[in-house]
Predict the 3D structure of the following.
Amino acid sequence: MNFPSLSDIRAAHARIQPFIHRTPVMTSTAIDQIAGCQLFFKCENFQKVGAFKARGAANAVMKLTPSEREKGVATHSSGNHAAALARAATVAGIPSYIVMPSNAPEIKKKAVKGYGGEIIECEPNLQARESTLEAVVARTGATFIPPYDFLDVVEGQATCPLEFLEDQSDLDILMAPVGGGGLLGGTALTAHYLNPQIEVIAGEPVGADDAYRSFHAGYIIPQTGPMTIADGLLTSLGTINFALIQAHVRDILLATDPQIIEAMRLVYERMKIIIEPSCAVPLAALLANKERFAGKKVGIILSGGNVDLGKLPF
Amino acid sequence: MNFPSLSDIRAAHARIQPFIHRTPVMTSTAIDQIAGCQLFFKCENFQKVGAFKARGAANAVMKLTPSEREKGVATHSSGNHAAALARAATVAGIPSYIVMPSNAPEIKKKAVKGYGGEIIECEPNLQARESTLEAVVARTGATFIPPYDFLDVVEGQATCPLEFLEDQSDLDILMAPVGGGGLLGGTALTAHYLNPQIEVIAGEPVGADDAYRSFHAGYIIPQTGPMTIADGLLTSLGTINFALIQAHVRDILLATDPQIIEAMRLVYERMKIIIEPSCAVPLAALLANKERFAGKKVGIILSGGNVDLGKLPF
């Protein structure tokens, strides 16, 4: 597979820079003491649309040809990618068509509409999502931008660790959550280019551990019946991302839902920032495996902050 | 009254700098659009102990003479000042005695103990707090550090707008909440020194509006029976602070509890940061008086982020 080169990733960063935040890196003495290592948090919860997904979506949209642009973009998603794609399209002045299940939370539909996306509802199952998307693409000629298993999206997510390692180059370990694997794949690739000594380690929920099982099996084992509070990590690993993970990820560590909630609470209380459950998974996995990180400099990508405040798990 | 000079405030900043965070200034396109002006938020919710109070307490402790230091410091408080003083004392290697009402929340007692303070419990009324404090001071010889009506504390709080105006010098308006008035007094003083064109405007809860009434009456009207979710702003205005407010504050604007909760929610949802209700009051007051701020550059001091996550008002 023809993965993006470091100069491709740098070019992507220059391409999307006007449309994204350079997010800050935060630290917490209190959490360092609890963890027994030195932590650096890259705050993508402060990113546009509240998640790193703004990067991949912006990169994919800005790489469209003029004739592709005219017809807009489409995807099926009920999560952060939907909002990110709608926003990127609006910023570029082109239409976006977002296929969402009819039972998607009102708050997520509102976000997509707020960013200027056109929502097409479908029955809440994968088959309906895919056939509805096909029909939308056939009708509009829009370009399908998949949420994670797509090189331009991975290249965009790879700009997040690029900024992170520019700001904090001396990390021993770099952690990200893994769902579809777009962020983790991009992170592994950038870290490999900039400093192959850095161990890239993923955090994954016990209740959606397809990446863990695939990583150890050596082939993709699809996710079936995931059960976890980390609702951004329910999807199966993408093939592009699996190849990157096999090549450049050192390990995948698991965390239970109570551990994820505890880590989330720790970040809220000690850092005074809002993160979504999926975002707490790497810290939870670290705290469940402290000895492995003892005394190290560990970077953690806080992936997003979109959470229903009325339904916090504490 | 002999208020701190600008060079006193700068000296205070140099004195406490090793013990506090230089907190970031954040912005939010989404909230700007809602407010109709350009907002800059100085994030003291990220300060040590989670509130600007770390500044005044550190300044007061670091200014003690060697013989005063030996005997430690004391105060009565159940809020952020208690934690801030305990921490400042521990950092300086001296004891701190914190008089707290017996019905203070367990979480606040835990914070004070966690920072190394010795808690002395008393009956939950002002008379008992004062007599217990007197007894503690008589027994230990500790120096009483009041929470706000005290020049060294005001001088410490004045370092917050000093940093803010260094980072963002072109503000038209600067806002802070007002309870006892330590932060507001310090803010008014620093703004006056650095740029007297800046309008300093306070936000105060309708349910604890003694500063508003005192400001318009021209003399201090003590707070009686305050009723507001902004539990950091229940106290009466201090005399030092009232003098500063009379001299250098342009106006005090009120906000109702529903407006405060709405502003708090806006900051959580759009900025992904955690603030306490008291901290949301200036933004709430601004949103209740939008026309006054239209098109201006407005700095808002986010005063603190210590909130019981299990009891959020949404």
Q: What stands out?
A: The interface with chain B takes residues 24, 26, 45-46, 50, 265, 268-269, 271-275, 305, 309-310, 312, 314 of chain A (CB under 8 Å). The first helix of chain A runs from residue 6 to 16. The domain at 6-51+151-311 of chain A is CATH 3.40.50.1100 (Rossmann fold).
